[in-house]
Amino acid sequence: MERLLVLARHGQSEWNLKNLFTGWKDPGLTALGVEEARAAGRRLKARDVRFDIAFTSALGRAQATCALILEELGQPGLETVADAALNERDYGDLSGLNKDDARARWGEEQVHVWRRSYDVPPPGGESLKDTVARVLPYTMREILPRVMRGERVLVAAHGNSLRALVMVLDGLTTATIPGLELATGVPLVYRLKDDTTVATKEILDRD
């Protein structure tokens, strides 16, 4: 039984390019983001990866990335479940602001705490701890059981919602997870043991 779980952060968005806090806002992919998503699909195809089901967030950039990956795999009609539980972390009052402008307004140290601490939320938004608290229950209820039944599962989502999953899969702590960065459009390929721990992990960052 394969127990395949692939995590993919969406390709570069228009607001990634502009260095803006995005959160639950819904900008589209850039041309580079489209190519990153397609390249992710090609890398998976080169390793003969196919899926039985896909999960994505309620946000367009993740949905577009998911669709482009599946298109490259020749699986454009695959069942895909979209749920806000997999949305990016909500940056609250920071959403839509340039990160440099935010530093000028609140100070480098305060913005760093909001961005990189585990449990301090920005004004009106979510901490990484809050994001973990909604992503993990959904994963345990909807995604992991399918993987453990032998279904091959793709999750196309966001940097912070996927960090919540990587934290558990890789055994990271609340002290180490804030330093983890996930590149846009780079699939993480996990194969799990029958006790749900990781048997192998591969980062598909090159063709």
Quickly name the level 1 CATH class.
Alpha Beta
| Assembly level | single chain
Radius of gyration, in angstroms, nearest whole number? 16 Å
Strand count = 6
Termini Cα gap = 26 Å
The number of distinct helices, counting runs of at least 4 residues, comes to: 7
The CATH superfamily turns out to be Phosphoglycerate mutase-like
| Helical content class | 25-40%
CATH architecture descriptor name = 3-Layer(aba) Sandwich
Structural class: alpha/beta
Shape, per Cα inertia axes: globular
In the predicted model, the low-confidence regions spanning at least 5 consecutive residues are: none
Proportion of strand residues: 5-15%
Count structural domains.
Answer: 1
Mean pLDDT: 96
Order of neighbouring strands in the sheet with most strands: 3-2-4-1-5-6
The helix/strand order is: EHHEHEHHHEHEE
CATH topology: Rossmann fold
Sheet with the most strands, sense and barrel status: 6 strands, mixed
Organism: Methylobacterium crusticola
Function: Catalyzes the interconversion of 2-phosphoglycerate and 3-phosphoglycerate.
InterPro entries: His_Pase_superF_clade-1, His_PPase_superfam, PG/BPGM_mutase_AS, Phosphogly_mut1
Family: Belongs to the phosphoglycerate mutase family. BPG-dependent PGAM subfamily.
